[in-house]
Structure to design on (277 residues):
């Protein structure tokens, strides 16, 4: 992929093994299907693959998924992906026990939407394994939807990672995870504004996260604020506005775009990079 010297954005493809995930097009449960999807993602230009075994969407009741079931889903998928391609693998989980088994199965990164704050054992497991972390903006206490709350949440997670000895950290502003209410413990309760207003502000001001001096990972693909703003109830109908949001994120400082739409996102990023070379 042709890239400019000062503008390089990587694309992370999403494979979900969780049937409860909000975008059914990302759900792959059969090992052959997972392997074929991973192979296609590599051919389409993905730089890494993110595997999830339990949806953490705030409006989904996810604690009914046992640790054993999430572990089985994730580890089987990791093995399938490794058999099909040589891309780095991220395990998307807030649970330390799942992360430990995912790392043993070959995961290079752990993607924790709660930023090491849900499971107290997560930081130690990641540090001892020497894997990198993607840490999401998250607060157990209610927070505001203003940028300062996101920055503060990320600063605390960065400190937790540093204290544990985790050397390679990326940050995620957690688009869609600041809500007034939810059905699981993996979101931040926000009391001052609608979630879609917060998400717009974060994307528009993403460059301000650069003060934290960490690579920025953004996951906005097909998310509900797009559906709300454009009256697109089905995630299947949100491709074009997703690409628009992803390119704004790239222009505003995102280093990694986590997406369901690898082929289209890679093409858009490539064109953006060509225009800025």
């Amino acid at each position: 992929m042709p890239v400019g010297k000062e503008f390089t954005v990587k694309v992370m493809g999403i494979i979900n093994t969780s049937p409860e995930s909000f975008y059914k097009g990302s759900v792959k449960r059969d090992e052959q299907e997972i392997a074929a999807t991973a192979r296609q993602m590599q051919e389409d230009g993905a730089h890494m693959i993110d595997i999830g075994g339990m949806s953490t969407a705030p409006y989904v009741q996810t604690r009914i998924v046992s640790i054993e079931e999430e572990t089985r889903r994730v580890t089987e998928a990791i093995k399938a992906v490794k058999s099909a391609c040589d891309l780095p693998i991220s395990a998307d989980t807030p649970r330390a026990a799942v992360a430990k088994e995912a790392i043993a199965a070959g995961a290079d990164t752990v993607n924790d939407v709660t930023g090491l704050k849900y499971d107290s054992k997560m930081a130690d497991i990641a540090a001892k394994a020497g894997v990198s972390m993607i840490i999401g903006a998250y607060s157990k206490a209610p927070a505001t939807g203003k940028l300062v709350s996101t920055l503060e949440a990320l600063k605390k997670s960065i400190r937790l990672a540093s204290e544990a000895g985790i050397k390679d950290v990326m940050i995620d502003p957690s688009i869609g995870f600041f809500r007034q209410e939810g059905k699981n413990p993996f979101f931040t309760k926000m009391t001052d504004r609608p979630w879609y207003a917060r998400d717009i502000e974060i994307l528009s001001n993403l460059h301000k996260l650069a003060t934290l001096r960490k690579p920025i990972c953004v996951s906005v693909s097909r998310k509900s604020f797009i559906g709300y703003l454009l009256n697109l109830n089905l995630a299947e109908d949100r491709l074009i506005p997703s690409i628009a949001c992803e390119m704004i994120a790239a222009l505003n400082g995102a280093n990694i775009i986590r997406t369901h739409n690898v082929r289209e996102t890679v093409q858009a990023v490539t064109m953006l990079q060509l225009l800025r070379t």
Observations:
- Residues 67-84 form the longest helix (18 residues).
- Confidence is low (pLDDT under 50) at residues 1-5.
- The beta strands are 10-16, 48-52, 89-92, 109-112, 132-136, 169-172, 178-179, 188-189, 217-219, 256-259.
